């Protein structure tokens, strides 16, 4: 791409990672090289999109490896894992030439202060011009949204979780 933009998918509703995954599929279908960087989710995630995409050509997936969804990881462990994953992703952005980079759950990383906001802002500004960058997760910082070219806020109106129904295989994961 001649010019890559910054997209943010945020808000309390369902669909942020799903929207980014749709964009990944679209980009791969057009022959783009894609880097998916997953924060706050474990490497052993059984989500349907990862099962489907794990061996697709032109897609590299990096996971921070320490999830916080189950609440068992220690803050310092998560922070260390996030920082190492971000450093590796930065290296790949500048050396491997991806067309699309998705930082899944980076907004939550920033909200929980596992990574300095300034580091992400510097990467946004320094990335190669043709790299499209997508940042997902609730609680996107105002500074990130101000710098973005596209911001979509997902809003929950109603969800089966509110009825006590847990995440369902093939639908929520």
Describe this structure as you would to a colleague.
By secondary structure, this protein is of the alpha/beta class. It has a single domain, classed as Rossmann fold (3-Layer(aba) Sandwich), CATH 3.40.50. 36% of the residues lie in helices and 20% in strands. A six-stranded parallel beta sheet has the order 3-2-4-5-1-6, sandwiched between helices. The protein is globular, with a radius of gyration of 15 Å.
How are the SSEs ordered, and which strands pair?
Elements: E1 6-10, H1 16-29, E2 34-42, H2 48-53, E3 59-65, H3 75-95, E4 100-104, H4 106-111, H5 117-126, E5 132-136, H6 142-147, E6 150-153
Parallel strand pairs: 1-5, 1-6, 2-3, 2-4, 4-5
Rounded Rg: 15 Å
| Total domain units | 1
Give the strand tally.
6
The helix/strand series, from N terminus to C terminus, equals: EHEHEHEHHEHE
Total DSSP helices: 6
Q: Which term fits the overall shape? A: globular
**CATH architecture call:** 3-Layer(aba) Sandwich
Question: Approximately how much beta-strand content do the residues carry?
Answer: 15-25%
* N- to C-terminal distance: 31 Å
CATH superfamily: P-loop containing nucleotide triphosphate hydrolases
Strand order of the largest sheet: 3-2-4-5-1-6
Fraction in helix:
25-40%
CATH fold name, please? Rossmann fold
Which class best fits the helix and strand makeup? alpha/beta
**Uncertain segments of ≥5 residues (pLDDT<50)?**
none
């Amino acid at each position: 791409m001649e010019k890559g933009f910054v997209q943010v998918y945020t808000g309390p509703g369902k669909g942020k990672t799903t929207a980014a995954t749709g964009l990944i599929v679209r980009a791969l279908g057009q022959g783009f090289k894609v880097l998916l960087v997953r924060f706050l989710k474990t490497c052993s995630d059984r989500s349907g999109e990862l099962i489907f995409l794990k061996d697709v050509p032109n897609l590299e997936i990096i996971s921070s490896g320490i999830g916080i969804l189950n609440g068992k990881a220690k803050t310092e462990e998560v922070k260390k894992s996030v920082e190492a994953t971000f450093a590796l992703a930065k290296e790949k952005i500048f050396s491997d030439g991806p067309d699309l980079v998705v930082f899944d759950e980076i907004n939550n990383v920033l909200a929980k202060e596992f990574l300095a906001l300034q580091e992400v802002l510097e990467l946004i500004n320094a990335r190669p011009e043709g790299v499209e960058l997508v940042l997902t997760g609730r609680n996107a910082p105002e500074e990130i949204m101000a710098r973005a070219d596209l911001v979509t806020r997902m809003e929950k109106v109603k969800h089966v979780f509110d009825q006590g129904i847990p995440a369902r295989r093939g639908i929520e994961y």
